Description:
Blueprint: H1 7-29, E1 38-39, H2 41-48, H3 52-64, E2 68-71, E3 75-78, H4 83-107, H5 110-129, H6 132-150, H7 153-177, H8 180-195, H9 199-221
Antiparallel strand pairs: 1-3, 2-3
Helix pairs in contact: 1-3, 2-3, 4-6, 4-7, 4-8, 4-9, 5-6, 5-8, 6-7, 6-8, 7-9, 8-9
Amino acid sequence: MDRLPDDDEHLQTETLTEKAYRALEEEIVTLRISPGTVVSEAMLSRRLGVGRTPIREALQRLARELLVVIMPRRGIVVSEIDPIRQLRLLEVRREIERLLARSAAKRATQLQRTLFREIANGMDQAARNADDIAFMRLDRAFNLLVLDAAGNEFAASAMSLMNGLSRRFWYMHYKQAADLPLAARLHAAIACAIADGDPDTAGTRSDSLIDYIQNFARATIE
């Protein structure tokens, strides 16, 4: 099939949109753009060196993930962090993450299993070094790989709406209430179970991770 005349431009826009989304998502999740900050397409375009169209599309995606609130004719605000809301999110996340972990253990390709082992090794390294940025990036890579390996677009769609909120909540409070090495090891344990093709262990370890995260969330309230 012949390519349409604007295919190259469309693919380039998609690439720039993904670049803008990844950069903005990391800046919001790691609080370099803090909750409650009012932003604009023009400001973010200058900040990232990306055109306004990719920025606009990235912001629409971030709005669907509840990381920003777009108010027509009033501006764009980075959403606030609410611990009570986070606990409600975790009720749903537990069930979906268990399903995804079990499904990924059953369906992952050999290449994906290799990638899970690499992530597990990286998480162990992050645990030893207490490296928060490495942990956050590996956590994102782990989440995306689980979604891909599980092969369930409905569970993946639901989970993708929660990942950014969960990672931002963690980043905001982990220095006061979290055990980063333990969190990294819990992630590594799930990754190893998926790599081994053991759905029962993957599901059990997923529950262990959520148990820890719920305790962490409650500690921030207390």
